[in-house]
Amino acid sequence: MLQSLRARLAFLFAGTLVLATVIAAVVVVSLYQSYNQDQTVSQLRKQVAGLQQYYQALFDKSRTGKVRGPQVITSSTFETVTAANVFYTGPPLFQGAPTSTRTLRDAGIPPNFDLQREEQQVYPSFKPNGATREYIGVGAPIFSGTQNVGEVVLGRPLADVNNAWKNIIGLVGVGLAVGLAVALILATYVARRITHPLRVIGSAADKVARGDLDVNVVGKRHSDDELGQLATRFQGMVDRLREVDELERNFLMRVTHELRTPLTAISGHVQAVTEGVVGPGELDESLEAVNEEVRRLDRLVGDLLDLTRLEAHQFRVVREEVGLEALLEQAAGAFREKARAVDIEFETPIDGAPTVITDGDRVLQIVNNLLDNAFRWTPRGGRVELGCVTSNGIAAIKVTDTGRGIAPAEREAVFHPFYSRRGEGGTGLGLSISRELAQALGGRLSVESEPGQGSTFTLSLPRKKRKVLL
């Protein structure tokens, strides 16, 4: 039973409350004892004052012989009225009275009191002669004229005073039992409220482990405490897993499609040649088509390998001095003929491009991907520009086109593997690989675009050597 977190929390809360109740009970008993002693002393002070006046007058009258034993109020009478014991030390209070009628008892209090003391004296603890119990009492002096000749003491058994708390132990026990019952109920409720989100998250985790990502642990009564934050983060993790799962499915579908398309074309040409459908004059054309599809497969496989290595941080780069002006001119040369063929103005303001420490082949690969993307989306009569600017130790290679632009919601999506827009050709891996390569080189690839006004892709490279991702 105690293996359950809810049970442990319930017992912990209940135990803590019971412990607090017991401590409070001990403190209450201690305070009650102190209070009862103070009240006893206060009551004895008042009672002994009257007893003092009576015995003072009795002592004075006994000296004149006006008092006889039967006229004396015995100490037992005072004890009955005051619920205390009367003790006396000093000479006899009156003359001629038989000892049997003078019921005052020798208290055994040493006659060390100040003979001139007029105030009362508190005795926190004293033991009368021949007694087995200790008493708490208040004494008052008896005077003959101005001389202190004795002292009367009114006392109560100290044990009775100290044990008075036993009279309320029943009430304390009832309160403790009620407190325990309330504590258990409250602790069970609180433990259930605390552990309920954890049980929900645990159940959701089991579903996720089985591959079921259709879970939601953030309900309408969502709290902002630690458990609520845990539920929010867990839900965020599940949502992210769902996105990754969707991306993986889309990735596999796109890879399958991209591989199947050239394979279908190759299979069709081979079957046509095998069945003699292709004549002798068309054989070279079919073989060239097969060769083109093979090159397409090779590029696709190469891109997939590059992307996999980059994401696994297993891609190596070469660190060398690279003159960007010559490199960009090489990239531009490969596209000038294409620009003329599709009637696109191609500008290359790259004079004075700096030298950087980087991997030239990978930079060339990124620039080629950016130019290929720009020409694909720029219509006839449009313009593509390849330039380079330097600022604050950063060389920024910019590829600008006058295509249809990219909507704000798509600006990050274009860097996802196999992302494509309607009418776009290619594998959809170029921009994704380019961004991963830029990060591996210690730089970054970003895009600025306005729908209908074109786009600008910027490759930012540090001119000095940095720690790069291998």
Structural account:
This protein has 470 residues and is α+β, with helices and mostly antiparallel strands. Among the domains are: 163 residues, 2-Layer Sandwich (Beta-Lactamase); 143 residues, 2-Layer Sandwich (Heat Shock Protein 90), CATH 3.30.565.10. Helix content is 51%, strand content 17%. It is built from nine helices and twelve strands. The strands form three sheets. Strands 2-1-5-4-3 form a five-stranded mixed beta sheet. Strand 9 and strand 10 form a beta hairpin. Helix 4 packs parallel to helix 5 and helix 8 packs antiparallel against helix 9. The protein is rod-shaped, with a radius of gyration of 52 Å. The C terminus is likely disordered.
DSSP, total strands? 12
* Separate helix tally: 9
Strand order of the largest sheet: 2-1-5-4-3
Strand percentage lies at 15-25%
CATH class of the domain at 5-167: Alpha Beta
The succession of helices and strands, N to C, reads HHEEEEEHHHHEHEEHEEHEE
As for the CATH topology of the domain at 5-167, it is Beta-Lactamase
The value of Rg in angstroms is: 52 Å
- Give the termini distance in whole angstroms: 53 Å
Let me know the average pLDDT.
77
Largest sheet: 5 strands, mixed
The unreliable regions are: 95-115, 466-470
Range of helix content: 40-55%
Task: Please state the overall shape, judged from the principal axes of the Cα atoms.
Answer: rod-shaped
